[in-house]
Amino acid sequence: MSGRKPLIAGNWKMHKTIEEARELVSHLKRELSDLSEVDIVVCPSFTALENVGKLILGTNIKLGAQDVFYIKEGAFTGEVSPPQLKDCGCDYVIVGHSERRKYFQESNEMINKKIKASLEEGLNPILCVGETLEEREANQTIEVVTNQLEGGLSGIEENQLLKLTIAYEPVWAIGTGKTATPQQAEEVQKFIREWIEKKYSARSASSLRILYGGSVKPNNIKDLMREEDIDGALVGGASLDASSFIAIVKGAL
Length: 253
Ligand code: 13P
Description:
The protein is of the alpha/beta class. It contains eleven helices and eight strands.
């Protein structure tokens, strides 16, 4: 047993109206409210944050955003700041998701600024890392993940790591139905933990939670969770349906 409490986060991506989001989270609340052995996070679109946040206030389900900008306020049309996320009730924020890296050209440098700004505001960042299929086939997985860790965590102090979660999301496994095998995920996640140990300390490495993301479903969560360095999941598609997300949360017990 690692002693790390599992964390299951649902990334709803660009799905759900406010009403649909309210319905989904109400269902989760009914079924998961007495479950204290797993940390549960839901990450709706910005438009539904406030409504979902009000429904889960004071419960064991925490609110997360899918992205954030790194400046507190100013003339940045379309962006949302860390204080604004706090104001909506967010405790968590996903940073550096591969879809942001790919479609919005987010660099490691920008992701690093977002991590720092989130930490400064007391938000818990979930830093996403992971390689594309081409990179995996070219045996560059470790190199790519190392770059993402070095860039994303540059200048982050050891005491700030307590608030951080890392999600390993191989890009080729996202939304494809092609999950990494537990062994493939474990290999990279073990590397990530060792990297943290080298850069910081064994103590930080052993308390840091590392999630796996990429086609996590009720039927594969148990096998993934058996691995030593998999401490939970960042769930996309299967988090949009209450019963499958509930089954994933329960599968992480
Ligand atoms: P899927 O679970 O739909 O593959 O998405 C994973 C993901 O990108 C979570 O952030």
